[in-house]
Protein: uroporphyrinogen-III C-methyltransferase
Organism: Lacrimispora amygdalina
Amino acid sequence: MKRNGVVYLVGAGPGDPGLITQKGLNRLGSCDALVYDSLASDYFLDEVPDHCRKIYVGKRAGAHSMKQEEINRLLVELAEEGLNVVRLKGGDPFVFGRGGEEILALSEAGIPFEVVPGVTSAVAALSMAGIPVTHRAVSRSFHVMTGHTLSDNGTLPPDFDSFAKLSGTLVFLMGLSNLSLIVNGLIKNGKPEDTPAAVIENGTLPEQRTVRGTLADIENRAEQAEIKSPAIIVAGDVAALDFSSTLSLPLKGCRIGITGTESFAGRLRRELLKYGGMTDNVLTLSTQSHRSGEAMKEAYKSLKSYSWLVFTSANAVREFFTGLFEGGYDLRLLGTIRFAAIGKGTADELLKTGFHADYIPDCYQVKDLAEGLKSLLTKEDRLLIPRSAGGSPELNRVLDEAGVFYDDIVLYDVALKKSEQESMEKVLAPLHYLTFASASGVDAFFQGAREKVLPSLASLKVVCIGDITAKALCRYGREADLIAPVYSISGLTEVICQDWCREKE
Ligand code: SAH
């Protein structure tokens, strides 16, 4: 009999992807199915293994969302298939997250489960807005209430008066549409009108906004600022405090869209996060390996006849060495072969396998790689260039002209990965920058939808990793706003940091 899988109810934290727990990340890293909704950042979709089934269950404007009973059933069915499932929920699974209902359904079906707590927005959104939920001599307790069920019949629930009379910090989740009812209810039940109050929108995210005031005017102020959901309402003396962080990272408040392969996107995202930027995956390219195809088999077999191995991407390095070991060879096969790498990222990847690059061009471009190599070669040299299909013909042109012997072999293909994303316009709307790391990424982005996406690029800056990528962009009628002078992840990050800091001045 097939064994049931385990369901992990994981709290994703309040929005900033850095606020998930290590335990939550570990569960994501080893699950077979992911069931998630809109409060959980897209960032987490990249943390699951390749084979993982990703199932979106709502609720985004316009998209179909599942009813709670359907979600319960889905979790049971997936586990009965023997899959280990992560049910990812915004904040903490039990803070108005309906985690309990899912657990009841799982217990009934005899499915094993584990709860991984999360950082709740009820505390974290306040912290990030500089409002401490408690403060010595100001607030000795905090109380969290849902504002959602308040207005079933337009009235306050019977226990609201005792809630209003509590002396600590009062926090309302899901209360924005009932803000008026809440504020008036608090005042009617004895809270002074000058009680400090605040509304925090998109807490912990780059677009976080806080409106502060008192019970008398907070409704007006929130309305004027056009505060939208998700938002948290706070009432109590702590709402007058402001302990916002004073350390500001260079990319604070900056939202960057990434296009590229999964591995590239992951590395760029980690780098941008270090500087306080938030990222969205706009388009993911997947790589299809040909490392065990006939051409590569032949190349491994005759590896000893080559004097140079040329890598034009970190991915090529990974694929090449994986294929080498899978083929039953080891590093001895490489003997005294010399290595050329197109840039630092590729050279760093090579170093992981124990080899320093013998040659890296000053400018990380195919043309410079070819020109530089040319000057190092003799007539006896034989080059092996395992790289992606559709790699730049510039390399062949320069080497052909110089009469260099080389084998240019397709090691992998890059293709657009089907995404479960919303429409491109919606994905692009909140972005400040959109990055392109290759001409193939540019082509994939515009595939079939050129007229539709061009206008969406008007409100953001497009950043390209190098001239070839920028030229590819030009072909679609859009100039790059920024080109990284150093063609690497850190070069791309640096150019965005500089520009963003200039913008803020
Ligand atoms: N389990 C979640 C809460 C789910 S209820 C948690 O522990 O945080 C959904 C409500 O949470 C939203 O309506 C909003 O009031 C609040 N919320 C969640 N994330 C938020 C955020 N980033 N900023 C402001 N409010 C948020």
User: Anything to note?
Assistant: The longest strand covers residues 278-289. The longest helix spans residues 489-504. The domain at 7-119 is CATH 3.40.1010.10 (Cobalt-precorrin-4 Transmethylase; domain 1).
